[in-house]
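Annotated sample (chain length 95).
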Amino acid sequence: AFCVAIVDPHGDLVYFERQDNCQYASIQISQHKARTAARYRRPTLVFERLLGKGPFFAYLPTLDDVTASSGGNPLMVGGKIIGAIGASGGRGSRT
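Output written by the structure step:
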């Protein structure tokens, strides 16, 4: 079961959907992933991969509103970010 959040370009929530039986933690996680993708203008997977590259990137979790976990992606139209989407509750692509 998933929670999906949509935010505007500033990271403010504009739409949220929660499937039945989705864990409660996924409510906030999905919103944080969307906010990170919007405010930093890149997928959250980028942060996750950078953290795996060693201690040089250990500062990333200290940045405001960074969620370094895949599932957040910017929404773009004509090369411009119009918002972002964040999803939580699934098993991801590493299953």
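Annotation: The chain has a mean pLDDT of 93.
Annotation: The radius of gyration is 13 Å.
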